[in-house]
Amino acid sequence: MTANWASLTAAEPELAATVETRFGAYTHHTLATLRKDGSPRTTGLEVRFLDGELWLGMMPGSLKALDLRRDPRFALQANPGEGTGMGGGDVRISGRAIEVEDGERKARYVKEVEPPQPFHLFRTELTEVVRTYVEDDAYLVVQVWKPGEPVRTLKRT
């Protein structure tokens, strides 16, 4: 089962806000895709939350775009920032990236974001969102959301 960003925002607004804040704290994040041979590729990436969607924009012909065209599965990790603070915790999103071919939709994105031209644009279908953080300097807390399920929270000492 997959869902768009609006689905997470409606189901778990607090988690969605935390995730957006973490991604908004830095410009560049880490995207993992799958190469032709199935091995992982990690690259830097900028993301945008617009119109109830999480968008991934990429340079034309980039290897990560070609990876996603071949196999849409991805994992995305928010930039942890400097040092060990990670205010808001570590945040990861997994799902499928679907390339946007619709000229009208792409034009609306360009109007909002003004990316360098030309570019690849992917909308995401989420399969999992995970937030990990330390609580009271004593517990590791892991929050896991999957479409159609409530957030599951695990605590470890």
Automatic annotation (TrEMBL):
<keyword id="KW-0560">Oxidoreductase</keyword>
<dbReference type="Pfam" id="PF01243">
    <property type="entry name" value="PNPOx_N"/>
</dbReference>
<feature type="domain" description="Pyridoxamine 5'-phosphate oxidase N-terminal">
    <location>
        <begin position="30"/>
        <end position="129"/>
    </location>
</feature>
<protein>
    <submittedName>
        <fullName>Pyridoxamine 5'-phosphate oxidase family protein</fullName>
    </submittedName>
</protein>
<dbReference type="InterPro" id="IPR012349">
    <property type="entry name" value="Split_barrel_FMN-bd"/>
</dbReference>
<dbReference type="InterPro" id="IPR011576">
    <property type="entry name" value="Pyridox_Oxase_N"/>
</dbReference>
<dbReference type="InterPro" id="IPR052019">
    <property type="entry name" value="F420H2_bilvrd_red/Heme_oxyg"/>
</dbReference>
